[in-house]
Design goal:
The chain has one domain: Purple Acid Phosphatase, chain A, domain 2 (4-Layer Sandwich). Helices cover 33% and strands 15% of the residues. The chain is built from nine helices and twelve strands. It is an enzyme of class 3 (hydrolase).
Length: 290
């Protein structure tokens, strides 16, 4: 039996070396750092059509090449699965006319692009939470509230997606920017319900002991006020499945929960862009060159 297992592993390895083995990779926050993104894709030997790529949100903004990044992802969308991050939603709010850009935003080239409409239409179809039951992995930009299952997160994400894709999406974007309500209740409705779901899945870092969101603290764990706990350390979160997330650059890829993978390693701040190969949990990194 041992010899047979070795033989099968060796065959799989040879197929991978020859470029015949499909792999699934997840990458953290790109934020428009296109040159670094392409360098990392070369490092992992990513081939659209053969491999699959998961992107954990914040595809654009702050980096110098948001348009190029979005156009690449759009071009190879059949091989790429994304979730939306807070910067992606910020862009959609600006594009809809419901919010003003600020000095740090790098959306101008997208807004002036002749491809603007098709890029925006596609971006709006991306979920806030994604789960692949066959791979036994899920992906979100920020995190999952302690009292939600992954299936709950899929369903609640869909509620926001329906609002984003509706003819009246401008109403959602007009009221998206707010930190309340801070605590989940199934009875929440309307914009309050949608806003909590959005904040939890795309902005959350710390929570109070009752699961209430605290959306202003960004320091690394250990430096936060005593009453705050990283969302992933709340007891109800410890026994959930495998989860990929980004958003929290100050974690620098370090998460104490073995089945949670933090992939935002501060690329846009001059640090590194990180990829995880889901098949064997191998980490790949490239230093920012943008």
């Amino acid at each position: 039996m041992a010899a047979a297992t070795f033989s099968l592993n060796y065959i799989a390895y040879k197929k991978h070396i020859k470029g015949l083995f499909m792999a699934t990779y997840a990458i953290g926050d790109i934020q428009g750092c296109y040159r670094t993104f392409k360098k990392l894709l070369k490092k992992i030997d990513f081939h659209p059509g053969r491999d699959q790529l998961w992107l954990a949100g914040d595809l654009i903004n702050r980096g110098p090449s948001s348009l190029k990044t979005l156009e690449y992802i759009y071009k190879y969308q059949d091989s790429i699965q994304c979730v939306l991050g807070n910067h992606d939603l910020h862009f959609l709010a600006i594009e809809s006319g419901q919010h003003l850009s600020n000095k740090k935003d790098t959306f101008k080239k997208i807004l002036l692009s002749p491809n603007r409409k098709k890029l925006v239409k596609w971006l709006k179809t991306q979920p806030l939470f994604y789960m692949d039951e066959q791979l036994e992995f899920a992906m979100v930009h920020a995190g999952v509230p302690a009292d939600w299952s992954f299936r709950d997160a899929v369903d609640f994400s869909q509620e926001v997606s329906e609002a984003i894709q509706s003819k009246n999406s401008y109403r959602f974007f007009a009221q998206m920017y707010n930190n309340t309500p801070s605590k989940w209740k199934e009875s929440l409705s309307g914009i309050k319900r949608l806003r909590f779901i959005t904040n939890a899945l795309t902005r959350m870092r710390y929570c109070f002991s009752d699961g209430s969101l605290e959306l202003t603290c960004k320091v690394p764990p250990g430096e936060q006020p005593a009453e705050l706990t990283p969302w992933f350390e709340l007891p109800q979160n410890l026994n959930k499945g495998q989860l990929i997330f980004g958003h929290w650059a100050s974690l620098m890829g370090q998460c104490p929960i073995p089945h949670y993978y933090a992939l935002d390693t501060g690329c846009v701040w001059g640090r590194k862009l990180t990829a995880l190969r889901l098949d064997d949990k191998t980490i790949f990194q490239c230093k920012n060159i943008d």
